[in-house]
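User: What would this chain look like folded?
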Amino acid sequence: MLIGMNKPQIITSTSDVTGTIFSVTLNTNGSNIAVATRRNVVTPTNVPTFNPTQARITVRGSTLGSCSISKTYIGHKAASGDAYDFASTPTQILWSGSAALTATASSVNVSDWCNFAWNKTSDIVVSMFFDNASVDAFRYVATGSVYSLTTTDEADVVDASSGWAFVARTYMLSDIETDGF
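Assistant: Here's the prediction, encoded as structure tokens.
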């Protein structure tokens, strides 16, 4: 009998192993995000071996203060149309079972796992609606593609309206993980 030896882990399905498909370091504080829908459009940089069926995201709070997100969605980027459109109905992301999240100062917030079968080729859209006019702090990196629509909630709209502003940044989103590794 071996004492103190770890048994090898037995993997029972392709979804038992998870990995990060997108990751950036958010290194700048911002303020006054106001009421807006923000859509991060990202190109995953790490592709799992097997077909993923689930995903979760990480958002990071500013060192300056808190930020409230009332709802978050994830989906494939549409092959045509606007650069921020979803290809089909997006999947809602929850935070400990709730649609809303308050990202407090310097917090690291990991969502619940959600059913999202990334096709391993499309860019991914992560859409967040900020419904609090007094939101005063968020975290970003000055690379990436984010689209912003002021005062309107289109977080889950597949073919979003026109009038979105482009900013070369990634807001709040630091990581996307999937199964299938």
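The first strand starts at residue 18 and ends at 23. If you want, I can go into more detail on any region.
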